[in-house]
Amino acid sequence: MKRKFLTTTLLICCFLASFATVADFSGMWTGTLKTDSGEVYPLLYNFKVDGDKLTGTAKTPKGDLPIDDGKITGTDFKFTVTLGELEIEHTGKIYDDSISVDIAANGSKAHTVLMRKK
Predict the structure, then answer these.
(1) Which keywords does UniProt give here (predicted)?
(2) Which residues of the chain have pLDDT under 50?
(3) SS3 85
(4) What is the pTM of this model?
């Protein structure tokens, strides 16, 4: 009985810690994206989390674009940003102090790390 109680308590704590990390994901995150051709683009995202739904905006030279089809599963996430006809897919992982993001568009792929904007 004691072992069952301890196991249940540990599982609940792990779940709450995971949920706290996701809840902390909301806010502004910044980074840069370097392409294969050497071009560097500044990145700025304003994420909003509601349960497992991810929304918000991505700042571009053409203005703020909405984050579409955003979903969070544990510490993993995915969303799409549409720029004209171009759909830019984002997948990544949430860490305590950073976000690892893989970005794919038109057959090209890139990786970057975002940090919380202060």
Answers:
(1) Signal
(2) 4-23
(3) coil
(4) 0.77
**Alpha-carbon distance 67 to 55, whole Å?**
5
* pLDDT tens figures, 4-22: 443 444 434 333 344 444 4
How far is CA 90 from its chain centroid? 8
Range(s) of the domain holding residue 28: 2-116
Q: CA 66 to CA 75: how far, in whole Å?
A: 21
- Counting the structural domains of the chain, the total is 1
AA letter at 72: I
Task: Provide DSSP, 3-55.
Answer: HHHHHHHHHHHHHHHHHHHHHTT-EEEEEEEE-TTS-EEEEEEEEEEETTEEE
CATH number at residue 86: 2.40.128.120
CB atoms within 10 A of CB 72: 20
